Structures are given as structure tokens and as C-alpha cells.
Amino acid sequence: MTLTRGADFAFDKPADEPCRHLVEGAGVDAPAFGCAIHAELRPRGMPGCTTYDCFGAGQRVAQQTYGGTSWREAPDTAAQMFRVFGVVRALHEMLWLLDAALALPTSAPLRSALVAAREDTDRLADEDPVALDGFDVDAHRGTVAPLLRRAADLARAAAPGPRRDLAGADLAGRDLRHTDLRGAGLRGALLIGADLRGTDLTGADLTGADLRGADLRAADLRRALFLTQMQVAGAQGDRDTQLPTGLDRPAHWR
Question: How would you write 142-208 as a 3-class SS string?
Fold first, then answer.
């Protein structure tokens, strides 16, 4: 993963280089690799690491694609493995989104297409390293994204509220506490630092919305669409923030 120095990361790191804080586990029960500053990521200027989610791609690449042989054991595979990981992570994120779409009652008319897309995406993630290296993941995303958008549109149409279309809107730092966002299309919206305290986001499509630093205290996200753990972890919330089933309340929320 490429790191760019800024508010989320304390230093630059190219995608083909291991993090300077990566250490090997010691002892039978310790993981093979770990973060030397895991308990201090936020105070050490690395909050971006606390929000990152590989959607299970790391385990699949390490244990299945490369049969449990790490890049340290086979250094000549390192560059390829890092590229393959990027492809599989993107495919796994699509699998997560497809599963979320299949769980929506309003997606019944799309079920066969969603199942087919999921099976195809999972098959691609099962390919060998040579096939995965250089695979055009954007082209595949181009076939999956319209299907996910249709699933979101069906769910939004059944939601209460004005169902505003704010896809891709720049709402950074905006006070949205008195804006009715039920059923809103917020796909790809810039919500960095936005004030969403007490907001009801029932039926709002949050696919790819940037929620870093957004204030979600007392917000109702229980029925928000396509909200990921990464988005939640990048935002601010409290004990009154209501999250969808399956998403955890981040440790830094107070």
C-alpha cells in the first residue's frame, strides 16, 4: 500500500516497500508479521493505519495465492506479491459490496445478476499469481459498479425522505445537522470534517463517501447503504452513534 505523508500518515512509503514499522513475530503464538507501534498509531501520526481494511485479501494472498510462502521467505516474489495484493484487495472490496447488496430486501429483482457478479469476482480472486498480476481490475469494477448502483437506487427509492442526489458533492466541513439526508445519494461525496451530528442517514448511499473526520455523534447509520468499517473508523462518533449490524464501534470513539 502506498502511504503519502499528511494528516493520516507520518511519512511517504511506496507501494513496493514494506513499512518501516513492520516487525516479525516472536514466539509460537505471535503473528508472522506485526506493527511495532500498533498501540500508538494515532499519537505517532498514523491514524490512516487504524482505518485501513484489506477486506480479507491479505490472508487470501498469503495463504492461498502463494501457498503460505511469504515474500521474506521468497524475496524474488515480493514485487509481484505486492501488486497481486492490490488486485485481490480491490476484488475483495467488490465482494463485500456485492454481499451487502444481496442482503438488501429491495435487491430481489437483481438477485440473479448480483449472484453471478459475485461468483465471477470470487473466481477471479482465485486465479494464480501470473493471471492476477496486471489484471485490469478497473475494467471489472466497471461491470460491477452499475449493478451496485442499481441496487442502491432501488433501496433509496424505498427509503423515506427527500432522497437528495448529492453524489460526488463537495460537502467538506459543512454543517449538515438540519439537512434531511434520508435516502440521499452520497456516493463518492466529500464529507471530510462534515457535521452530521444527530443526522438520520436511513437509506443513504454512502458508497465511497469520504467520511474522514466527519462528526457522527448521535447519528443514525443503522440502515445506511454500503457503509464500510474503514469509513466508520475514519470518522468521529460516540456511544449514541447507531451503526449497522456487523460494524464495530472504533476504539478511539469517546
Answer: HHHHHHHHHHHHHHHHCCCCCCCECCCCECCCCECCCCCCCCCECCCCECCCCECCCCECCCCECCC
